[in-house]
Amino acid sequence: MRLSRAFLPTLKETPAEAQIASHRLMLRAGMVRQTSAGIYAWLPLGWRVLRKVEQIVREEQDAAGAQEVLMPTIQAADLWRQSGRYDAYGPEMLRLKDRHERDMLFGPTNEEMVTDIFRTYAKSYRDLPRNLYHIQWKFRDEIRPRFGVMRGREFLMKDAYSFDLDHAGATRSYRQMFTAYLRTFARMGLKAIPMQADTGPIGGNLSHEFIILAETGESQVYLHKDLLEFDVLSQPVDYDGDLSPVVDFWTSRYAATDEKHDEAAWDAIPEADRVSARGIEVGHIFYFGTKYSAPMGLQVSGPDGKMVNPEMGSYGIGVSRLVGAIIEANHDETGIRWPEAVAPFKLAVLNLKVGDAGTDALAARLYAAFDPDAVYDDRDERAGVKFADADLMGYPWQAIIGPRGAAAGKVELKRRATGERVELSVEDAIARVKGGG
Ligand code: ATP
Ligand code: MG
User: Fold this and answer.
1) What are the residue ranges of helices labelled H in 89-134?
2) What are phi and psi of 10, to 5 degrees?
3) Taken in order 332, 334, 336, 340, is the CA torsion positive or negative?
4) In this structure, which residue's CA is closest to atom 28 in ligand 1?
């Protein structure tokens, strides 16, 4: 992407309404533009990050055996009357009428719809277990939308739904998603801690929230410090095998949100091992048995010929919230510091003297080596503006090309995360960025 032709706008002024770093930086870096309270347009820079986050979520859901579908945003109220939630949901639900005066709604979640789809096809225990997910926009008319995309009204969620024959099967599905979640967040460079949670309006008996620690988080959390040190990506995972080595570690150490906090259990932990902090919920998983399958008449014939209601669970990830959460965990005074896995572009090539034959030639070579995963700052701007924008946008690598270096065939390579700079030949710079180290 050549910056002279790109729509990558920035804001000079810090927007007054933005109270936390991620919101300020997303507005300043031109990632999103608020169009109504809690509703955002995703501009090219933000959209690229959102898609990368979404793709990691997708890969880990697929690896865990879930299958992707796409359900609509608009749902018929009648489905929600079958579960009893149409009246129960309250003012967070955006209710609409079509031209025939039929009650419709913009989905805040999809338990009813997926149950309806599944009951059309599932006939016997051989159709179980199954897990269906989609990545789709949700609407919740939050009373206080704030912190930018972290608590929006329209937001992108991954929601998966599992169907099992019995409690043992449902527990297994729950543990598969539990493991997939740990891996998903770790791949984004986040430490997300699963914590026992209340089940809220989804209902049910077992639930964990996945929470990352950040000063600006909305929840107060308490945990054993060992949980911050566990490296889940170094553990082999066999989704068809025994998941205990990964899952059981987390249930053996204390971690709780405010609502579930147990003072006695907390006091029993040595003080040096206790961490109490603020946290951001990035995912939430539920096991709720037959809460939807029973009232909605989803049943299959069991191995003994008797009809049974499948046991269900649902599993959400806040895909758009994650973009804000990742920035909360990765920024400094000058801007964002993207982890490579979700960076909008891997490299920014800063040509400090556009029109100079030497700098133009080196810049073109570097850019060609990484396009389309690079931006090329070929604008007619001062060096200071180029440095500031590249720091703000947070690309993991910057290749700085000035006339003096170019005459010697050298570029200056800067690593955004550490600020470390080295002078290298173009070939070495390319190798270094490709190698990621
Ligand atoms: P919260 O407690 O933050 O209001 P929730 O418990 O109502 O969230 P869930 O129904 O568990 O949310 O939804 C799954 C995930 O969707 C949450 O873990 C969160 O990451 C994300 N999410 C929920 N509400 C919002 C929102 N208003 N804006 C952005 N993301 C959201
Ligand atoms: Mg939740």
Assistant:
1) 111-121
2) -125, 160
3) negative
4) 151
Tell me which H or E stretch contains 222: strand 219-224
Say how many residues make up the chain: 437
Low-confidence residues of the chain: pLDDT under 70: 199-205, 436-437
* DSSP output for 152-200: -SEEEEEEEEEEESSHHHHHHHHHHHHHHHHHHHHHTT--EEEEE---G
Beta strands 74-76; 219-224: pairing state: unpaired
Structure tokens belonging to residue 212: 């990352």
- 140 CB near ligand 1 (under 6 Å): yes
Q: Beta-carbon neighbour count of residue 343 at 10 Å?
A: 22
Which residues does 357 contact at the CB level (< 8 Å), separation at least 6? none
Query: Which residue out of 196, 321, 323, 328 has the highest number of ligand 1 atoms within 8 Å of its CB and is therefore the one to mutate?
Result: 321
Q: Kindly identify the ligand whose nearest atom is closest to the C-alpha of 144.
A: 1
Question: Which residue type does 199 have?
Answer: T
- Residue identifier of the C-alpha nearest atom 11 of ligand 1: 284
Domains and CATH numbers, the chain: 3-335 (3.30.930.10), 345-435 (3.40.50.800)
Single-letter code of the amino acid located at 213: L
Q: Which one, of 146, 204, 200, 134, lies nearest residue 174 by Cα?
A: 204
pTM above 0.85? yes
- Alpha-carbon 21 to chain mean position: 17
Q: Pocket of ligand 1, candidates 284, 288, 319: which has the most ligand atoms within 8 Å of its Cβ, to mutate?
A: 284
Determine which residue's CA is closest to atom 26 belonging to ligand 1: 151
For 252-267, how does the pLDDT look when each residue is reduced to its tens digit (9 = 90+)? 899 999 989 999 999 9
Amino acid in position 331:
H
Residues 154 and 55: their CA atoms lie apart, in Å, by 20
Residues 6 or more apart in contact with residue 174 via CB below 8 angstroms: 162, 206, 285, 287, 313
The token pair at 261 is: 């906090």
On the CB side of 90, CA atoms within 13 Å amount to 7
pLDDT tens digits for range 258-299: 989 999 999 999 999 999 999 999 999 999 999 999 999 999
